[in-house]
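ingest -> fold -> write
write: protein_1
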Amino acid sequence: MTTTQQNDALAEMRETIVRHEWDQFQRTNNEGGRAACQGNWPVFHQMRLAQFLTWERPLLESYAADLDEADHAGRNLVTEKYGRMMASTAPAEYAANIEPYIPRLDADRIARQEQVIARQVAWAADFRSRYPKLGEAMRVLTTAEDTATATSFETYLRGELGTYSPTTFGLYETMIRERAAANPQRNITEETLLNTVRLGGFDSLDEAEAAQ
């Protein structure tokens, strides 16, 4: 397979994953009725594809398998992601109606996730300090800032990582560790936001920042 064919295959895999998540998102019940964002495919596609453009083939393949396995097992990873976020935003409801029905994470997995989350929150804070206008358009940063109607970057990430299989999380953890060890460090938040603004028609973060 040529390099072009490999790149095309990766692009197709990413699109398939985004579409699979969208399908699960459509089956996610929201308290108070269907959420407006559940009808906004262009924004969903832009945001999710921007993230997956930072992932390499093994991680993409593993997460695609997670989504397939969830379908076969009658699970919905997108629903579970939002459910896990409610541990912070609606703790009583989470304890009563969600926690008993989703896979429990052991202490080692939680500790490893928190290391990843701390690294990514620091990267997000660094990004916001350098691109304040783009940062203002992001979620609030930390779980301490969560409210019943606003979910932070940290809480969202914790919810998402909690849905990954052991294999997928291990690959993701390695990706973050390698980016942190690179010289210079590769800030995955910045990479994701660069992909986001490029998909939105800008050439660079500086151009997008100036346009805000």
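write: protein_2
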Amino acid sequence: MNRTERLYALVDELRAIAPRPRTVGWLSARFGVSRRTVQRDLQALTETGVPVRAEAGRHGGWFIDRRTALPPINLTGPEALAVATALAGAEDATPFSAAGRSAMRKLAAALDESAADEVRALTELIHVLPARTAPSVLATVEQAVAQRRVVWIRYADAAGRESEREVEPGGLLAAEGSWYLVGWCRHRRAGRGFRLDRIRAAELRDEPARERTLAALDRDLAGRIRHTETLRSLSRG
């Protein structure tokens, strides 16, 4: 973790437990740096206007102004377990899962002691095998979708034949245990779905992608999704 990443992480840590404080010693152990480094980082945050404050005394430490923290989310026990299960079960190849560990830590910090213990016990029972999608590929696809930018990919079909494509991303799809990048394939001049674990390489282009609805990319797929949403609505009703 470089210094910039650590500064963001310090703010996230203090925000997650606001208005409770963290000691320099605790933060030093948490981020694997010296106490002096933590002190310098906290001072730098203060100088840049981040509302971190120091409180003296036996139970003191560094904290962040609660007015800058998100309001607490009142989750029921089952809701907290559902969120924890989703986070713990997210594979490395699941899009936008990289922040799952810090999200789990914040969830545990927001719960009372008994609920947090239950969440920790549950997550110890969930194991996910290593993913086959390269982290660099996943990160590039995430950026392409989030920023709506054209992405170049080298893709292998079911038979292992590789081809190069430029794709205008439309979204991400989970189906039958796999994740897909759904978008407009300029090579095929049609909407296509690309399994993330078959993307061998990916590079983000500077060119913005044209916005297309899912129906414009794949009408059959859009119909199946609408059908699934209708069934879910009926089951809740």
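write: annotation protein_2
The mean pLDDT is 80.
Residues 77-123 form one domain.
pipeline exit 0
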